[in-house]
Amino acid sequence: MGLFEKKIGTVFLKEDSDAQEFVKKLEELKERSQGELRYKIEKQINIANYGILGEKNVAFELKNSGMDMYVLHDIYLEYGEMSAQIDYIVVTRKHVYVIECKNLIGDIEIDNNGNFIRRFELFGKHVREGIYSPITQNERHLRILKEIRKEMKKNFLTKYMFEQGFQNTYKSIVVLANPKTYLNARYAKKEVKNQVIRADQLIAYIKKTDASDEGGKWSSQAIEEIARFYLGKCKPAKSDYAQKYEELLKLADENDVASNDEMIQPESKKEVYEKPDSAEEEFVKRLKKFRLDQSRKEGIKPYFIFNDSQMRDLISKGPKNKEELLNISGFGPKKVEKYGDVVLEIISGEVSAH
Q1: pTM, whole model, 2 decimals?
Q2: Which CA distances in Å does 292 have to 160, 304, 354?
Q3: What is the fold, at CATH topology level, of the domain defined by 275-348?
Q4: Nearest-CA neighbor of 105 among 164, 46, 146?
Q5: CA 85, CA 65: separation in Å to the nearest integer?
Q6: Backbone phi and psi for residue 111, each to the nearest 5 degrees, phi listed first
Q7: Taking the CB of residue 281, how many other CB atoms lie within 10 A of it?
Q8: What are phi and psi of 167, to 5 degrees?
Q9: Are strands 107-110 and 116-122 parallel, antiparallel or unpaired?
Q10: 98 near 140, Cβ under 8 Å?
Q11: Contact between 50 and 103 (Cβ < 8 Å)
Q12: Distance of CA 323 to the CA centre of its chain
């Protein structure tokens, strides 16, 4: 680094998170769900929100570090059959830090074999359970970062030099983001213990690690290039959150099909299903056409406009104004403001299918 290198502070090249989009989509999915599926969705929302809170704690520490660094948050990478969902990549003037953020309820113990054990209290009972090692998780992340970066080196010599210096340059950190978590690592091996810290120790750890390296410092241009390189390799919409959402979406679709089947089945053998009259069929036809056309315009799934259950509620209650439309399942203020006028026109029979 030059003698008069300008101070840049903390620069976030990517600060958003798939988790935030995941929660937003799940909130919409929850509107069309009930029973056990609704419980599953709410559980995933709570887990994601807790993770988001932990990552915000880490972001706060990084932003107030007073150090020159480039930061990437929530990066998804692939190399061959390997993939990595990395919470933070932090590039300082000395090192590249790969941070795995854990916002866990309870206390964490690490034994002499490197096993992670979580202890917490649930409904008055003490629970002790093993969790997947975040250090093992980060080792996989480092392998992928290494292979991706090595691939861009131009010849055998530069590849060899990069590989030789990788372990000293790239550092793994596991951050316990819950300030109430107590870490017991007295029996853990030194190389394991040194990688696990609390969020409030993060900046002191990074400063100490950078200071202990007697090598030269990278320029502002160099650290930005490294960060932008990995940002350019980031793959969209393939995260663990995206996969979990697809699973829940499939369950919701199956739930809709089951609900539709229930609607057309007699409740008992003595009852006979009555075919909807032509007026109701016409309303269904118009509403479905509006829903399909609008979803194509917005590039979203039709049921995000309203699902079949909400459509039946519309037809049966026949709202006459926006105030009454707010009483329909799934129609909150935003949706009423966005679609209310057209929906009310269709229900009143004043318009034909567009």
Answers
A1: 0.66
A2: 56, 10, 11
A3: DNA polymerase; domain 1 (1.10.150)
A4: 46
A5: 24
A6: -90, 180
A7: 11
A8: -60, -35
A9: antiparallel
A10: no
A11: yes
A12: 35
The ranges of the chain annotated as CATH 1.10.150.80 are 275-348
Q: For residue 250, what are its two tokens?
A: 């499939």
Distances (CA, A) of 13 to 76, 223, 226: 14, 12, 11
> Which one-letter DSSP state was computed for residue 351?
S
Residues ≥6 apart with Cβ < 8 Å to 252: 29, 32, 33, 37
How far apart CA 209 and CA 94 sit, in angstroms, is 9
Phi, psi dihedrals of residue 78, rounded to the nearest 5°: -130, 145
**Degrees, nearest 5: CA angle 313-293-307:** 25
Q: Cβ distance 146 to 86 under 8 Å?
A: no
Tell me how far apart the alpha carbons of residues 119 and 127 are, in angstroms, rounded to a whole number. Answer: 6
121 has which bridge partners? Answer: 126
Tell me the per-residue pLDDT of 28-83, one tens digit each, with 9 for 90 and over.
877 777 777 777 788 788 878 878 888 899 999 999 999 999 999 999 999 988 88
231 sits in which H/E element: helix 220-233
pLDDT of res. 292? 87
**Residue 102 DSSP SS3:** strand
Q: Residue ranges of the chain with pLDDT lower than 50?
A: 257-277, 351-354
Q: Are 94 and 218 in contact (CB under 8 A)?
A: yes
**CA–CA distance, 164 with 40 (Å, rounded to integer):** 47
Please identify which residue in the block is written with the tokens 């917490």.
120
Q: Is 116 helix (H, G, I), strand (E, B) or coil?
A: strand
Tokens of 213: 């390296």
What does the chain come to in residues? 354
Q: Taking a C-beta distance cutoff of 8 angstroms, is the pair 32, 256 a contact?
A: yes
CB atoms within 10 A of CB 273: 10
pLDDT of residue 148: 95
